[in-house]
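Morning run. Coffee first, then this:
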Amino acid sequence: MAPPTVKPHSLADLDAFLAVARHRHFRRAAKERGVSASTLSQAVRDLEEAMGIRLLHRTTRSVTPTEAGQRLVESLAPAMDAVTQALDGLNLYRDTAVGTLRLNVPSIVARTVLPGLIGPFLAAHPGIRLDVEDNNALVDIFAAGFDAGVRYEEMLAQDMVAVPIGPRVQRYMLAASPSHVAQHGLPQHPTDLLSRPCLRHRFLDGGPLPWEFERRGEVLKLNLQGPLVSSHTPLLLRAALDGLGWVYTFEDLLKEHFAEGTLVPALTDWSLSFSGPFLYYSSRRHVPGPLRALVDWLRSHR
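And here it is:
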């Protein structure tokens, strides 16, 4: 018949045995562990039954390891110390800002918000390694292994903790190249775009969204047409610079082109304003040290 084996759930019994063998006394070992002497005695009996061998000599005056018990102590103690040290090592990640912080962010945040944030944050927390994925799709970031994400308010689930990151107000602006404006003129109303070539953004997990304009409480949503639809914003900007049509995107991406005169703004009084992005994470999960450090840093640098 095959010899008995120790099941995985017997690890606690092994630890109990080591405590008794070290103190050579059930009550002193029980006091150290915060349990009753009878609990330790039962744990040792369970271990001896599982192993099929006596590990401790018990008398009314003393408790001493048997020869087999002493051999187990000598073999097991270093391994249990290593387990304890490994578990203690996790405290470093729980209580301090050390380790990897994985973020899932949209392209606009990666291009216009993070560049000014990463340097000061990592300088203040040299123990953190930041791992950022640029992704515009609406994905389950936690199932994908991210600690947190950045999205805009309308895309946040109700059970998430949301912390402002970056500018608190942003807006879309309409723009085209000077050559395109010279050929087709400036639109005077958003509906003029129905007969103009428009360069539309398509999200990775869906089709092109309507262009939304707002002025003094009046909101217009237009489904427009044009020579290019793409999920790649730099490609849309390049097409606009080449005179292929109108682009409607974040003002932050257009400011430099406006200053250089390579793009011309239009319908500025109809530009849609909206709240800036938010860092979000689950309210039902333990917050790791690196994420807690970023949240605290953002709140202190508002």
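The chain has a mean pLDDT of 87. Good start to the day.
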